[in-house]
Amino acid sequence: LRRLGATYSRLSLPLLCKSSRNTYKYHIRSYSAMSKTIVVTHNGTFHADEALAVFLLNLTPEFKDSQVVRTRDPAVIDRADIVVDVGAVYDPSRHRYDHHQAGFTETFDDVHHIKLSSAGLIYKHFGKDIIRGILGTNESLTNILYKKMYEQFIEGMDGIDNGVERFPADVKAKYSVSSDLSARVGYLNPRWNDPQPDTEAGFKKAVQLTGSEFLERLDYYGKAWLPARSIVEKAIIERKDVYKTGEIIVLSQYCPWRDHLCSLEAQMELNFILKYVVYQDSNGSWRVQCVPSGDSSFGNRRSLPKAWRGIRDAELSQISGIEGCIFVHATGFIGGNQTYDGAMQMAIFALNAPESETK
């Protein structure tokens, strides 16, 4: 390989090993020249997509502990067991996963329209096996997590790497974001004026960075986000036991409810009927929170009344006529009461208030 001008990478990547407590911990293994399989990606300036692709392959039984070779040499590429982000070929049957060639149009599925980067390609073909291997989930839960991880972690990387703008060109962003994962990987490349630029050390860091964040996000979605689904589903099913119109739900305990509510509502064909979520907070008081108008929107389907916003305690109770009020946020998206009955009264009052007062 050295005669062909390739660059060896004895990358030290974290592998997941199961401990006696049924948890996963990082252990470090180093690739060696004696590896059975060769993973090839391009050398030179690196990006988040191929760094994550390399990490994800190391989580698969087939390519775990592979030798990573960074090169653009056609002879080395042809002999590789798997190629990502280089080679101008997309052919899963031969494990070729590039996305730069003319005519490439592959997306995650028919619903998603962003062309895949090398990270998206590897995730599309290996993601379900990776999720099952780490979390031990059944097919149904694996499918939910597979979609969630793509939409919340991989898709943005695909869009950035393919130069897809998040907003139409005529919409000016109100602030700059330069701390996303793709940007942080970019900063690991050598500086333009470095007298002795070395991309190898930075690439190793990029693989570690993208991989550790992937694992952390999957761990959160698998062990915190996903278990909340059944709590939200039960609350939606029982919504008419809470209030006759079925527009208020009460969670049996606080959990991350927003994503699940939107997807379950669509699944149950409720047509955006839900307006408020009531739950007990960690201090023992109760909250009434507005259902957002969209998955990633700061707007609400129906806000708390304007007259309550930014008001607290006794003054708020006097204005609203409801005992035990604690606060209503200045934007009207959430409020608090000392008791469950008080929080329900706030939600019911807001639900029946004139629309002009809840915009």
A few lines on this structure:
With 359 residues, the chain is of the alpha/beta class.
Key words describing this protein structure:
6-stranded mixed β-sheet, elongated, single chain, disordered N terminus, 359 residues, 5-stranded mixed β-sheet, 11 helices, alpha/beta
Overview of this structure, please?
With 359 residues, the protein is an alpha/beta fold. It has 11 helices and 13 strands. A 6-stranded mixed beta sheet has the order 1-5-4-6-8-7. The chain has a 5-stranded mixed beta sheet with strand order 9-10-11-13-12. A two-stranded antiparallel sheet has the order 2-3. The model is unreliable at 1-5 and 12-35 (pLDDT under 50).
Give me the secondary-structure topology.
Elements: E1 7-9, E2 12-18, E3 24-30, E4 38-41, H1 48-57, E5 67-70, H2 74-79, E6 82-84, E7 90-91, E8 96-97, H3 118-135, H4 139-161, H5 181-186, H6 199-225, H7 228-237, H8 239-242, E9 248-250, H9 258-267, E10 276-280, E11 286-290, H10 313-320, E12 325-328, E13 334-337, H11 340-352
Parallel strand pairs: 4-5, 4-6, 6-8, 9-10
Antiparallel strand pairs: 1-5, 2-3, 7-8, 10-11, 11-13, 12-13
Helix pairs in contact: 1-3, 1-6, 3-4, 4-6, 7-9
